[in-house]
Amino acid sequence: MKSKIRFFLVIFIISIIFIFIVKYLNNHYYNKGFELDYPYPESFPFTYDSYSIKRGDIDLTYEEKIQINTFKTCKYTVSSITNIDFYKIYALNESLADGINTNCYGPIISVTDLENGTYQIVQDDYSLFFVELLIPIKYEIYINENTEIISYFDFYEFASKIEYIDVKYTVINDNNYLPVGVVIYNKDNILKKNAIINLHIKLSTRKDVIKIPRDFLYKNNLNQYYVYGENDIFYVTKGIESKGYVEIKEGLKENERIYKKE
Known about the structure:
The protein is mostly beta strands. The chain is built from 1 helix and 17 strands. The strands form 3 sheets. Strands 2, 3, 6, 7, 8, 9, 10, 11, 12, 13, 14, 15 and 16 form a 13-stranded antiparallel beta sheet that branches. A two-stranded antiparallel sheet has the order 1-17. A two-stranded antiparallel ribbon has the order 4-5. It is elongated. The chain starts with a helix and ends with a strand.
């Protein structure tokens, strides 16, 4: 009788130890990201935020914050200078009352006597800023003189354009970068020197793709991307990301509904 009791007691203790080990391994490895970085929920902790998946276009963009401190300059020649003030040159061959109209608004930087009866004037133009970007060469195939660029400062948007693309790479820490000169049109002279602006370069557009808001996409410790369905979790392949949306290459279909986790 005592031997039977001891036998059942041993079985009971072994069972308890086994259950403890299983729970420990489940919690330890499951949460470490062997599957997901959270225990699989019995019921999904959804918020009321949901999104019905749609198809649409998404832009591949290169974005960079940069400080602007260089104005674009104007160069022009005049003859017989009669007077120079901070902003304008007065010459006999132009209107003495109004000064030379060069469409530049900025201080005179230099006046050079060309010794042939003319002078070369260099003048800052406050209406145009100039910056040089160093763009990773992986984006080189997308960059040309017609590439669309928009600059943002606070709530203002400024038209911009590529002025040059240097064929000679700049090397930084063994990485090659493409020097690209950009002109920013300073609408209403809002931008000042040393302002920090956001440059958005539109590299290409992918049309008619599955895309979802960025905050509906999650990532586990294995760098796997997933979303919450109504009763399940869907692993997805992430594409490009732009303006708060992410392209989903695989894993979702149009009109499916996904949810946010609390």
